[in-house]
UniProtKB/TrEMBL annotation:
It comes from Cohnella zeiphila. It catalyses: (R)-pantoate + beta-alanine + ATP = (R)-pantothenate + AMP + diphosphate + H(+). Pathway: Cofactor biosynthesis; (R)-pantothenate biosynthesis; (R)-pantothenate from (R)-pantoate and beta-alanine: step 1/1. It is found in: Cytoplasm. The lineage of its organism: Bacteria, Bacillati, Bacillota, Bacilli, Bacillales. This is Pantothenate synthetase. It comes from the Bacteria. It is an enzyme of class 6 (ligase). Belongs to the pantothenate synthetase family. The gene is panC. GO terms for cellular component: cytosol. Transmembrane segments: none annotated.
Length: 300
């Protein structure tokens, strides 16, 4: 599909057309065919581009989906004002090497109110699952639909949404979906802010103060190294203290959990847990109406 990439991705808006594009590629490529899927909600940035580039380097065909999924937004969340820009998405997708750009309407994805939902338990009980009730039911459902529609060999997800990676990986395993979930590193602006479509909502003052997320997380490995007695509770308190120095910051959570099971690491000093298994240190902070998340994964 390199010829398509040179002129930009093929835009498809229906499930039938994306299936036809994938089938056409598989028929032409034969036994060695590999399809990568990059699910997004659009308003693409370098974080999304890194997922597409990775997919393009590992697969013969890369399908990018752009769909703002109403099922994963709560009633008071930003579904209506979520940034949308099709021209920008086409340009980023072309530059990053996507072959097929699937941009369905809400009616195409949900012609009827779905009576079926894909619910992943336990790993959804904390972090964003706790603060956004129903969010991961919407994610599980739409990602399952995308897997069924595209039939990818690999699917690429950013670790900025670390809980989403844990949820989707477990869902695919539990339901025997024949797809490899590929977690990809967080892409940041030069000053450290994790890239996010929602960063566009921030005022200049909020954006400056939002640097507290990445700056706080960057201190965690040093705190662990310097303080043998640092417990999970103490670490959370330290993070909250730093974030609270920003007058516009409203903390939703400051957490440390095992990864990918997302369980509390216990009361013992964190160094013991960190020596044995991966720990996710995660923050969700609101600046005005904008909710930002960031995390680091500590690996033994
Ligand atoms: N900075 C980033 N680095 C790496 N991957 C990212 C980054 N931002 C988003 N992604 C990944 O891109 C995919 C699509 O995410 P999405 O379209 O929701 O973008 P977003 O920028 O996270 O938007 P939002 O502002 O809604 O959180 C997800 O797998 C997400 O983790
Ligand atoms: C995976 C996803 C595209 C499902 O709507 C969304 O949750 C996102 O953008 O991370
Ligand atoms: N990247 C996560 C999608 C959401 O916030 O709904």
């Amino acid at each position: 599909m390199t010829a398509l990439t040179r002129t930009g991705p093929r835009i498809v808006r229906t499930i039938a057309d994306v299936r036809a594009a994938v089938n056409e590629y598989r028929a032409a490529a034969g036994a060695g065919a590999t399809v990568g899927l990059v699910p997004t909600m659009g308003y693409l940035h370098e974080g999304h581009a890194s997922l597409m580039r990775r997919s393009a380097s590992e697969n013969g065909l890369t399908v990018l989906s752009v769909f703002v999924n109403p099922l994963q937004f709560g009633p008071n969340e930003d579904f209506d004002r979520y940034p949308r820009d099709e021209e920008r998405d086409r340009a980023v997708a072309a530059e990053a090497g996507a072959d097929v750009l699937f941009m369905p309407s809400v009616g195409e994805m949900y012609p009827r109110k779905p009576l079926t939902s894909v619910l992943v338990s336990e790993v959804t009980s904390r972090l964003c699952g706790a603060s956004r009730p129903g969010h991961f039911d919407g994610v599980g459902t739409v990602v399952s639909k995308l897997f069924n529609i595209v039939g990818p060999d690999r699917a690429y997800f950013g670790m900025k949404d670390a809980q989403q990676v844990a949820v989707v990986t477990r869902m695919a395993e539990d339901l025997n979906v024949p797809v490899e979930i590929v977690p990809c590193p967080i892409v940041r602006d030069p000053d450290g802010l994790a890239m996010s479509s929602r960063n566009v909502y921030l005022t200049a003052e909020e954006r400056e103060q939002a640097l507290v997320l990445s700056r706080t997380l960057a201190q965690v490995p040093g705190w662990l190294a310097d303080d043998a007695g640092l417990t999970s509770d103490l670490l959370k308190q330290r993070m909250e203290q730093l974030v609270r120095r920003m007058p516009l910051a409203d903390i939703e959570y400051a957490e440390v959990l095992t990864y990918p099971d997302l369980l509390p690491p216990g009361e013992a000093p964190l160094r013991e847990a960190a020596a044995k298994e991966r720990l996710l240190v995660a923050l969700a902070v609101r600046f005005g109406r904008t909710r930002l998340i960031d995390n680091i994964l500590l690996t033994p």
